[in-house]
Amino acid sequence: MKETTARTGPELSIVVSAYNEENNIAALVAALTDTLETVGVPYEVILVDDGSTDRTWEAIQSACRNDPRIRSIRLSRNFGQQNAMFAGLHYVRGRAVITMDSDLQHPPATIPQLYSAWLEGYQIVETVRSESEDVTWFKRTTSRWFYKVFSALSGIPMSSGTSDFRLMDARVVEVVREMKDADLFLRGIAHWVGFRRKAVPFQAINRQAGESKYNLARMIKFAVSSLISFSTIPLRLGIWIGLATSLLAFLELIYILIVYIRGNVVPGWASTLALVSFLFGILFLLVGIIGAYLASIFETLKNRPRFLVSDTEGFSDE
Questions:
Q1: Are strands 124-130 and 162-169 parallel, antiparallel or unpaired?
Q2: Cα 61 from chain centre
Q3: Deepest of 68, 109, 141, 292, by most Cβ within 10 A of its Cβ?
Q4: Which residues is 202 bridged to in the sheet?
Q5: What are the beta bridge partners of residue 203?
């Protein structure tokens, strides 16, 4: 028999983060309700409005009024998708918890597979995404290379297509809620904590309405913060680069001395200046890497909350 965490509440909790998704909420709730009814267990859906500037909150409130199993929280501003999901994890009561996005590219129809795997004893059931047709070649390629680099630098193997659509046992959720990382990367944390896991493939469909909130700048920021959060190799890399450049400079010095002893004029001032410029470029790159780690430490020391809740809906019974 499956070992469970003692708690009152539903069997299954669904946490959905939403930012400016007013046109997707009704379709999402309908799809979730239809799917969860087929599972046949008590459930709750927690919708997290990540500081939307459109009518997402009004759409969420309407869904809550029509179904008491739908509950919601509204963050005081946009804290980012990872923090929004993290906020939802603090409100769940289920023995199994599923996190997903609100754009319907994480298909609710996959939920029964995740739940069945949990009943088999898997404590984390992650999903591996096959991209939809609307994903560009650039995004697909950069995503693939990000996971390769992340796996190599962090020592945590993650396959391309890993997403925030996953099921976690209540025990795992308790552990995740204790994480103090300054730069939250739930995909990495879900792998780092261990536990018994299984992967389920799913086919992403085209976004139903709106557009992706992850532009190039956000993608780069997310990738850099994720790597810094899970690996110190970029810092240690500076030592090896320093040793290599020092060896290069030492060999250059020996060459200059030999040419000077022979009474010749030392040639190559242009190449020397080019080399100096190159070395200064490496130096500033390393200073930038150190600065990124210092910024992460600074954010951790401030100890500010990851999210602030301004409104809730559907929690009056607690």
A1: antiparallel
A2: 27
A3: 292
A4: 129
A5: 130
Please report the sign of the dihedral spanned by the C-alpha atoms of residue 185, residue 7, residue 15, residue 132: positive
Give helix then strand counts, H and E, for the chain: 10, 8
* Closest C-alpha among 195, 147, 144, 146 to residue 167: 195
| Residue of 23, 214, 222, 185 whose CA lies nearest to 103 | 23
pLDDT digits (tens, 9 = 90+) for 154-191: 666 776 667 788 899 989 998 888 887 767 778 778 87
Please name the residues in contact with 136: beta carbons below 8 A apart, sequence gap of 6 or more. none
On whether the CB atoms of residues 166 and 127 are closer than 8 A, the answer is: yes
* pLDDT tens-digit readout, 249-293: 667 667 666 766 776 655 665 556 556 666 666 777 777 777 777
For Cα atoms 172, 186, 169, give the angle at the middle one, nearest 5 degrees: 20
Report CA 107 to chain centroid distance, whole Å. Answer: 19
User: SS3 for 166?
Assistant: strand
Domain 12-230+306-313 falls under CATH 3.90.550.10: yes
- Per domain, the residue ranges of the chain are 12-230+306-313, 233-302
> For residues 171 and 169, what is the distance between their CA atoms, to the nearest angstrom?
5
Q: Is beta strand 162-169 parallel, antiparallel or unpaired with respect to 43-49?
A: unpaired
**Residue that is written with structure tokens 């290379």 in the block:** 145
Closest by CA to 18, choosing from 164, 176, 168, is 164
- Which whole number is the average pLDDT over 17-44? 88
> Which residues does residue 72 pair with via DSSP β-bridges, in sequence order?
47, 313
